[in-house]
Amino acid sequence: MTRSRRRRPSKSRRASAKPAVWGSWWAWAALGVLAAAVVLGIVAGGGSGGGAGDQAAGTTHEHEPGAVEAGRQLYEGTCAACHGADLNGTDLGPPFLSPIYAPNHHADEAFQRAVLAGVQPHHWDFGPMPAVAGLSRDDVENIVAYVRTQQEAAGIFRDPSHP
């Protein structure tokens, strides 16, 4: 009795260990379109949450008056001692009425992180800012609405030295 041997398929018929997806032009084209969309979204400020992209482009963003007033009260009770009642800073902390704090340099989320974790000095010669206990994300959003409104009133929409 003779057993028949199975022949191995030729290399061209064997299943490849790697899919050939990246070998096709449409996959590279799709990747290019996706990359372009991401870059355009970042440049345009998309997904910035709360209009920071509009502000960074030099246009104003309407803030809910109730949020601005709540933010003013929270700012006065929490932030003014270091950053100044007029937002022009003190011997303890930097001014928020500076292009450095414009939305295109310090986005709204930077304020959230500073309150939550504190900040090491990186623009000014002040000491580190400690985390601020007792403020919720909504509280900080209201403070930022107040700060952004004051920046807009002072003509600060973007930091020209920061892309």
Rg on CA atoms, Å: 27 Å
Low-confidence stretches: 37-60
Residue-averaged pLDDT: 76
Could you say which structural class the secondary elements and strand pairing correspond to?
Answer: mainly alpha
The best one-word shape is: elongated
Helix segment tally? 6
Features:
single chain; mainly alpha; 6 helices; 43% helix; elongated
Would you mind describing this structure in some detail?
The chain is mainly alpha-helical. The chain has helices spanning 25-44, 52-56, 65-78, 80-83, 108-117, 137-153. Helix 3 crosses helix 6 (137-153) and helix 5 packs across helix 6. The chain contains 6 helices and no strands.
Reconstruct the topology from this structure:
Elements: H1 25-44, H2 52-56, H3 65-78, H4 80-83, H5 108-117, H6 137-153
Nutshell version of this structure?
With 163 residues, the protein is mainly alpha-helical.
